[in-house]
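#structure-requests
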Amino acid sequence: LVAACWEKLELSNPKDAFENDGIRSVWWPAGEKSCVQAFDAESGRAMWSIPATPALTIVSSGGVLFMLTHQGNPPSRRDVVAIDLASGREKWRLPHTAFGPEADLCLNFAGPGCVVLSKTKDKDKRATFVLSADDGKTLLTLANSVARAIVGDQLWCHDGRYDLKTGRKMPGPGIGATYAGTNIVGGCVPPIVVGD
């Protein structure tokens, strides 16, 4: 069990248009006294705790915890950080500037050997990035696409399905725009469960 702990929350200005469509506000984690803590799920025993810039989002896969750290309101800096889940040691870190000048990264989800990010603010410069869980190197970039889910070996985006390893567009629809607002990032996307 992993928890991101924040000193306080701040309400965004909808006109900033980060992760929203200019009509809604979102809460940002804030404060200097923030940390990420891991606990054994069965016993509740603390495994590790690391001080961290407030973590906006955390996801994990394959023994790696990925977090998107966040500074500012509106965001002035965001880093993607990979942490070894067993030890709490940092594996790698990438600043938002590795993907463009705006601090508008969204940590979407993690999958087998990868983590998926999206650029969110500028509708004309959106992109999805699939990074290696091992070293943070970019495995795949999809311009003008917003990631929605990993299903099997495919990345389902708002505009279609893509092979997770090659980026080749696959047959079948993606998962379209949200049904609340005009922004295709975040918002009210119906939950999807795919399995046997």
